[in-house]
Amino acid sequence: MAERADTTGAWEHVQVLAGEIGPRPATGPAEARAQGYAEEVLRRAGFDVRVEPFRSQTTFTWPWLLVGSLVTAAGILTWWPGLRGLGAVAGILGVVAFIGMADVALDVGRLFATGASRNVIGRLAPAGRPERRVVLAAHADSTKAALLFHPAQARRFGTNLRIHMAGSVWVALAAVLGALVPGALRWEWIALPGLVPVVYGLGLLVHRELAMPWVQGANDNASGVGLALALAEHFGKNRPERTEIWVAITGCEEVGAPVGMARLVARHRAELRGASVLVLDNLGAGELRYLLGEGNLRFHRSDPELVRLAAASAARHPDWRIGPSRVPPGSYTDAHASLAAGIPTLAIWAERDGVLPNWHWPTDVLANVEPETLARAFTFVREIVEAIDRPHIA
């Protein structure tokens, strides 16, 4: 009976976050309202809550526009022999920034950190002596739609990113060779094919800012926040024996890098060393998946023990068809920040036919959330936490 109330609670939280608060742009008032709501729920559940502010970019558009503009400038400057050296520098900078951002390793967005956001962190002491720590993390912000996330393109998102990267490298290489061996070939014409995907990408970014709406974000990620809050309420009533529970509602995940989670890791690295981080993202529709890792150039593997515990829980519910997956190229979750820092982490989401349902598209609304998926996710994550707390029964 208690579990029924808790899983119903997850759905009710999602209704508030997506239905009443609505779209939650990073650093905006709605993101703050969503986190204020989370703070109230955590306090009522008995958690000690802290709010940790930070600065962030407001969107991924501006950093990527800078990268694309550098590469475009490199291609254009090959037409002026006296400026080819400057074009080579622009091309190199553009490619380095592109690769760094695609790998979520270079935070170009810091140049555009004009907004104020925060992480809301609740801590719950165990019933007995604390021996372990589990962090349930979910991001509060939602994104703006873009044509690159159109349902017909979502499955090809990683391929499209590689095409844009190849075009950028092509242009930069032509710019560098044009500066070093200017008379060898017509470098200005050679650069043109690479410019096509780069300029196309710039057009998509401008179109996103001028014409596309903010997404309600019922699945991404009101579902993850709602689930984290429902689990907080559950563990507030049923404290683990030996495990301290953290619930971290992060800000600014949808801005080209998991900024909020990166700030949390940087501030609490010592406390998180040896903790178990469970990232909850897109859990409102589809079939549950535990992710084996993520990363584009450098693949960060999920913690083997957490993967084992997830597989054991999945085996207890064979009709739910829970299985392993991984973050596709070009994408990331909050888990990237903690995995890159060497913190044991596992991200959990739900897919349909290998794709996140309604990913970053206007159809990500409350009506397309499946309460049954939320209920299954609640049980799945709860069992993993209980197995961490009592490893002898895992």
Automatic annotation (TrEMBL):
Q: Name one GO molecular function term.
A: aminopeptidase activity
Is Protease a UniProt keyword of this protein? yes
Could you tell me which InterPro entries the record lists for this protein?
Peptidase_M28 (IPR007484)
Kindly list the residue ranges recorded as spanning the membrane.
60-80, 86-106, 163-181, 187-206
> What Pfam families does the record tag this protein with?
Peptidase_M28
User: Is Repressor one of the keywords UniProt gives this record?
Assistant: no
Q: Which SUPFAM superfamilies match?
A: Zn-dependent exopeptidases
Q: Which UniProt keywords apply?
A: Aminopeptidase, Hydrolase, Membrane, Protease, Transmembrane, Transmembrane helix
Tell me the ranges covered by the Peptidase M28 domain, including all copies: 214-383
Q: What is this protein called?
A: Aminopeptidase
Recorded source organism is Caldinitratiruptor microaerophilus
For this protein's source organism, the top of the classification is: Bacteria, Bacillati, Bacillota, Clostridia, Eubacteriales
